[in-house]
User: Fold this.
Amino acid sequence: MPTSGAAPFPNVEMPINVREYYIEAAGIISKSPRAAAALLRLAIQLLCKELGEKGKNINDDIASLVSKGLPDVVQQSLDIVRVTGNEAVHPGQIDADDPAVVGNLFELLNIIVEYMIAMPKRVSGLYSALPPQSLSAISKRDN
Assistant:
């Protein structure tokens, strides 16, 4: 689990390979916010791959997810983490040395996991528990 008070615990539905980068970033944010931002950007790239994208180019992966109906709040969260992480490696206009700026990225990563993995999993479980006749009626309605 995170070793820094600057990061919330990772969403329980966060894939393990993504969580490893999240926890590593949490452990170094106070020493190197820039390095933490870069690690979180890598976590986003892995998360995109977990969501069925190629994982080669994070910008292309986000564009593909948008074309598949990605909610605006998730797209914006992905882009905030992507751009801030990029700026950590290629300095520009965003202050990736500020722990407060980078600290927000942890929350955004949790939001992305909540929208893309946790919520669909919960809703799917509830939906599949509906009575068979209700599921059949819904299927007829939608066809």
